[in-house]
Amino acid sequence: xxxxxxxxxxxxxxxxxxxxxxxxxxxxxxxxxxxxxxxxxxxxxxxxxxxxxxxxxxxxxxxxxxxxxxxxxxxxxxxxxxxxxxxxxxxxxxxxxxxxxxxxxxxxxxxxxxxxxxxxxxxxxxxxxxxxxxxxxxxxxxxxxxxxxxxxxxxxxxxxxxxxxxxxxxxxxxxxxxxxxxxxxxxxxxxxxxxxxxxxxxxxxxxxxxxxxxxxxxxxxxxxxxxxxxxxxxxxxxxxxxxxxxxxxxxxxxxxxxxxxxxxxxxxxxxxxxxxxxxxxxxxxxxxxxxxxxxxxxxxxxxxxxxxxxxxxxxxxxxxxxxxxxxxxxxxxxxxxxxxxxxxxxxxxxxxxxxxxxxxxxxxxxxxxxxxxxxxxxxxxxxxxxxxxxxxxxxxxxxxxxxxxxxxxxxxxx
Length: 414
Hints:
Strand content: under 5%
Structural class: mainly alpha
Number of helices: 18
Radius of gyration: 21 Å
Distance between the termini: 28 Å
Shape: globular
Number of strands: 0
């Protein structure tokens, strides 16, 4: 049953991944590299802000939902989306105020025209992101799968059309606003009649949810920063044209997160329930099976993609993006780390502070190492030193997670 749910989510994300991959393929042909690079920089801002303002709600759902009685769960859902609504309003007001200040102090700033719309998009997507976690927790894995596919198909239809009608970063921003609005309406149409329409029994426990979720949210923010430090540095030290090429090369590793994310949505709640009852042996079994299964997926992936890297990039994104191949090859070294970097046991056992401290430490090391390589290397190696630093730090983080997991489960590191 567990394996079937994981498989359903993996199949869904695989299809969604295929649909999503068609989007950059189309956009690299519809937009010039400078506009495509500017658009991806806006997306980078959104991803960074969203990680913090989610307040760890997707993870807190996975932690609290399986520990609660059925009658108590509506309070959790109402409380979760209430927090997200406040966060959404905050980010819209924040970005609107920032745009107003730029109009007064820096009227020629290139970000000025995008900020308010980017804030609205971020606010809308805050209300959407935990939805798939909720569906999985309700044992509606197939519904979660079709939601993933449907949302990806929506993006595939709207975003290239937006680029064709207005081939600029602003045109793309209008396109993602349309998709975000449709997604929010879908989510609200589902949760309102089930959880929000009627009174909710049970006492609020917002403090407990925030106590769990905020460290997780901060950890997610640091994780996103750590994952994107390379892009921040490329954006600062290189042109938007080079950023566009670099983005294509670095696109692949985060995308493959759909595999571990699918498994986490099913496995983590079960680990949380087992930890509450003190069944460490059950957690160990789930962990071992997950690592073994994911290793059988990621290792062949890494080898196969390395073999076809050059023709793959040129075929998908044209020869204009052939410079992305070296970056792509470096990032493939991260794929084998995926099965061993699972923090599921630590999340299920409530060790969010450890994960937060680890994420902060790794981010600091990543910044120092990336900047050092950037300023000491010369020529094309300046650019390539940045992903090298990211790979080294990711493997170091994986080692720490493995050691803490073994300590938690009281098993040898092997």
